[in-house]
Amino acid sequence: MSREQKAVARARKAFETGRSKPLEHRIHQLKNLQRLLTERKKEIVDAIKKDLGKSEEGTQLYETLGLEGEINMAVKKLKEWAAPRPVEKNLMTLSDTVYIRPEPLGVVLIIGAWNYPWAITIQPLIGAIAAGNAAVIKPSEVCVHTAKVMEDLLPLYIDKELYPVVTGGVTETQELLRQRFDHIFYTGNGMVGKLIMEAAAKHLTPVTLELGGKSPCYIDKNCDLTIACRRIAWGKYTNCGQTCIAPDYILCEPSIQNQVIEEVQKAVKEFYTDDPKSCPDYCRIINQRHFKRIMAMLEDSTIAVGGDNDESDCYIAPTILKDVKPEAKVMQEEIFGPLLPILSVSGLDEAIKFINRGEKPLALYVFSHDSKVINRVRDETSSGGLLANDCLVHYSVSSLPFGGVGNSGMGCYHGKFSFDQLSHQRGCLIKQLKMEGMNSMRYPPHTSPVRKTNPICVCLLISPAGI
């Protein structure tokens, strides 16, 4: 057996013992995970610094604080989430017990992403543990140092048989995907998402795909451009643009393009100084392959601000592109880097048409003082999430589902949505062996000359609409 096969087999064997199911065990594992984040903060920070150039404060803000909040919520709410949920009855089941019982799915495969390697890998693990599953954790090999820290530390804090860590690259991931799982949770790009679905289909395994796409940002000319551009600059250049819900491009009227450029530039200077390269809060592109991919997008667009770069350091300055055409290279795929194209539209109508011509994005941003503008964008488009007058922060709200639609993904997670996504909602009906007189209405013969009851009454008793 391969290393991957052994890890999956051990996880399934451990799950079959039933020890992951009691709420006490789940809470204990979650608290241990919380302890890991507290006690091993330095190792986590150092690894992410080596992989992505994030500062200690940036790692806490964007990686670990959210996880700690998610764990606290799961521990506090788990008893409520896992409790049987009573449902409405029909006339045929008035004296019976009818409820939905959340149950573990089994063994979950979690394939993490490199851009927020702890947040994006561990958050679905929190849901898997809370739901009572076993989970095989596959951190992204692109973040070499972070993957190593996960491999070393997780087994010291949580059950290493129920929650094994499997490291490696494409070959190891392919071997994992040949195994049978009860759910696969993947965060990454659409091309790999298709391969995940193809592999899952062989075992009829359900999937959660958190993908991405080109998240549009429409700026109404009547809004406060200073505040809007400050928030857009924060959302775009955080993590050097390597955020699945970063605003990918701006749509605005030509009359405000220059002011938008000026305000974004002003915010970049405020956040990252005149020399972002030396600023500890400005990250780096993950590797040279992605550096070259992003730089190639600049070939047929006009740089208004930025453009400075250093391949040896994987550094690309915060960059704004003006008068960008829809057919430009930068508009053909998700940027996932610090390039911010601005496209001119005549107004809201054209912006909505432009957005709807593309694939459904993971996030859609609109900046306006006018609720009618916001409501039109909401009502006349489709996206995984909608955020008005800010960027990114909807990800932090655990009471909102986070997920895509269409090409930007399927399924959702965060808070109770993680628990529900990784649980089987088992419908249960418990009857008593009595009151057979009432039950006999449904038994044949139905065509007897002397009917036991009116057929219409039987339909009313059996049909869910009969109440």
TrEMBL record:
<feature type="active site">
    <location>
        <position position="210"/>
    </location>
</feature>
<dbReference type="InterPro" id="IPR029510">
    <property type="entry name" value="Ald_DH_CS_GLU"/>
</dbReference>
<keyword id="KW-0276">Fatty acid metabolism</keyword>
<dbReference type="Pfam" id="PF00171">
    <property type="entry name" value="Aldedh"/>
</dbReference>
<protein>
    <recommendedName>
        <fullName>Aldehyde dehydrogenase</fullName>
    </recommendedName>
</protein>
<feature type="active site">
    <location>
        <position position="244"/>
    </location>
</feature>
<dbReference type="InterPro" id="IPR016161">
    <property type="entry name" value="Ald_DH/histidinol_DH"/>
</dbReference>
<keyword id="KW-0560">Oxidoreductase</keyword>
<keyword id="KW-0443">Lipid metabolism</keyword>
<keyword id="KW-0492">Microsome</keyword>
<keyword id="KW-0597">Phosphoprotein</keyword>
<dbReference type="InterPro" id="IPR015590">
    <property type="entry name" value="Aldehyde_DH_dom"/>
</dbReference>
<keyword id="KW-0472">Membrane</keyword>
<dbReference type="InterPro" id="IPR012394">
    <property type="entry name" value="Aldehyde_DH_NAD(P)"/>
</dbReference>
<dbReference type="InterPro" id="IPR016163">
    <property type="entry name" value="Ald_DH_C"/>
</dbReference>
<dbReference type="InterPro" id="IPR016160">
    <property type="entry name" value="Ald_DH_CS_CYS"/>
</dbReference>
<comment type="subunit">
    <text>Homodimer.</text>
</comment>
<dbReference type="GO" id="GO:0006081">
    <property type="term" value="P:aldehyde metabolic process"/>
</dbReference>
<dbReference type="GO" id="GO:0120553">
    <property type="term" value="F:farnesal dehydrogenase (NAD+) activity"/>
</dbReference>
<keyword id="KW-1133">Transmembrane helix</keyword>
<dbReference type="GO" id="GO:0005789">
    <property type="term" value="C:endoplasmic reticulum membrane"/>
</dbReference>
<keyword id="KW-0812">Transmembrane</keyword>
<keyword id="KW-0520">NAD</keyword>
<dbReference type="InterPro" id="IPR016162">
    <property type="entry name" value="Ald_DH_N"/>
</dbReference>
<dbReference type="GO" id="GO:0004028">
    <property type="term" value="F:3-chloroallyl aldehyde dehydrogenase activity"/>
</dbReference>
<feature type="domain" description="Aldehyde dehydrogenase">
    <location>
        <begin position="5"/>
        <end position="423"/>
    </location>
</feature>
<dbReference type="GO" id="GO:0006631">
    <property type="term" value="P:fatty acid metabolic process"/>
</dbReference>
<comment type="similarity">
    <text>Belongs to the aldehyde dehydrogenase family.</text>
</comment>
<keyword id="KW-0256">Endoplasmic reticulum</keyword>
